[in-house]
Structure to design on (157 residues):
C-alpha cells in the first residue's frame, strides 16, 4: 500500500461516511480498553451532521479513499484518526504539519493517557505533555493528558 497518490484536502459532505469509518476503525484499534460514550450509529450521525459540515475537517486520501481525518478548531487539534492499515507511513505527520501551518502560533490537543502510541507520536512531532486529568471532563471518563506545541521562539519556550 503505497502513499504515492496521497492527497490532503478539506472534507466535503460526501466524505462523511468514510470519515466516520476511519474514526471508528482507528478508535477501536487504538483504544480497546476505553469505553466509548456513543454507539457506532451515533458517531456516524455526529460526523455526518456536525463534524464534516460545520467544522474544519481535513482528510488524507489515497487513490480517492479516505485513510485519515483531522479536525481543527482554531488552536485546538480536536480529532486526528488514521485507518490502522495506513499508520506508520507519514500520513499523520503530514496532517500535523498542516495543522501547524494553519495555527502557526501553536496548538493544543487532548489524548487519553492509555494511548501510548499517540503520546509518542505527538512527542515526536514537538508536542509537550501538560495537564493530566482523571477524565472527569471527557465523555468516556478516561484519564487524559493535554499536549501543547509552540513554534520555536514562541512565548513560553
Amino acid at each position: 500500500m503505497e502513499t504515492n497518490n496521497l492527497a490532503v484536502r478539506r472534507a466535503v459532505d460526501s466524505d462523511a461516511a468514510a470519515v466516520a469509518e476511519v474514526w471508528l476503525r482507528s478508535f477501536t484499534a487504538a483504544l480497546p480498553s476505553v469505553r466509548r460514550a456513543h454507539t457506532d450509529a451515533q458517531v456516524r450521525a455526529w460526523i455526518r451532521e456536525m463534524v464534516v459540515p460545520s467544522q474544519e475537517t481535513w482528510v488524507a486520501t489515497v487513490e480517492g479513499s479516505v485513510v485519515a481525518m483531522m479536525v481543527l478548531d482554531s488552536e485546538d487539534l480536536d480529532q486526528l484518526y488514521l485507518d490502522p492499515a495506513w499508520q506508520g507511513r507519514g500520513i499523520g505527520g503530514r496532517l500535523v504539519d498542516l495543522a501547524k501551518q494553519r495555527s502557526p502560533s501553536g496548538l493544543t490537543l487532548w489524548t487519553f493517557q492509555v494511548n501510548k502510541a499517540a503520546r509518542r507520536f505527538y512527542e515526536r512531532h514537538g508536542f509537550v505533555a501538560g495537564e493530566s486529568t482523571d477524565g472527569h471532563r471527557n465523555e468516556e471518563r478516561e484519564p487524559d493528558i493535554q499536549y501543547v506545541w509552540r513554534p520555536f521562539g514562541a512565548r513560553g519556550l
Q: What stands out?
A: Helices lie at 16-30, 40-54, 91-102, 116-124. The chain has one domain: 6-149. Residues 6-149 form a domain with the Aminopeptidase fold (CATH 3.40.630.30). The mean pLDDT is 94.
